[in-house]
Amino acid sequence: MKLSIIIISYNTKDVLADCLNSIYSAEWTSSFEVIVVDNNSQDGSVEMLYDKYPQVKVIANTDNKLFAIANNQGAKIAKGEYLLLLNSDTLVWSDNLQKMINYFDSVPQDVICIGPKLLNKDRSLQSCGMPHGGYREKICMCLKLHKIFPPRLIEFLFHIKGIPQDTEKTREVGWVSGACMMMRAALYNAVGGLNENIEFYGEEPEFGYRTSKLGYKTLYFPESEIIHLGGSSTKRERERERERERETRRKRGSAVTASFRKKRLVTQRLSDCQKLLFSLPTLGVCFLRIKNLGTMLLATKNVSLNI
Known about the structure:
- The protein has 307 residues and is an alpha/beta fold.
- The protein has ten helices and ten strands.
- Helix 1 runs parallel beside helix 2 (45-52) and helix 8 runs parallel beside helix 10 (283-301).
- It starts with a strand and ends in a 6-residue tail after the last helix.
């Protein structure tokens, strides 16, 4: 087996089906398998997989294991020479994944991970990797300042170099987006996989930093392009909320619906606050990312390779 594709699913039934269809419709010359780790979806995702995609290996968790743990679960049963961590809200086409395999076959053994050019739905650029660097670079990446301010301004203010601006050049980077990252399976398992102590905002930077300390490289490969839709789990939750409101209106009448709407309004306000919290460099998200930075540094203090 050449490639094991690991997809994490959480209430993304429709986009998961689109993702799987795009995978099986793509152009391949290498053998591959698909592993879906479902984090206790309530939208019929698991049933859909068993019914429509019997060739897919399914791990059905009874709770939400989050990104790192779920991917490591998939890696444990993978048979491929390479692992591809792929978000359920991605779309592939043509031979883009095969290009990644072919390129991986051509690079030295010290390359542990490569990532493609990630595109938005309208084919505009979404992600092209982040750089290596010292502590100032790590802080900037964990706080995601490069997504808020122009790269040149960050370089000037923090006296750092390497914020990526040439999106068409294959180059070494510090880390690539977890929406689509291909790795050597043996090395992934040897270094311990993704850090399960990190909950949000930092699994990929920590993995790149930890593996670089062991002498391994991560490469950005723009000749391969993948579409990443983004935010599908959150969108699905909102759809389910509206569906519950309609069902409540039908069964209990307008009086109960008014009460439900009031509760929904409060929930929506909280959701808006949460969205603001995780989209801007507020104190809460800064604290979470600084916490993950501490976890990263502790994990790499006595880093070792398990072979």
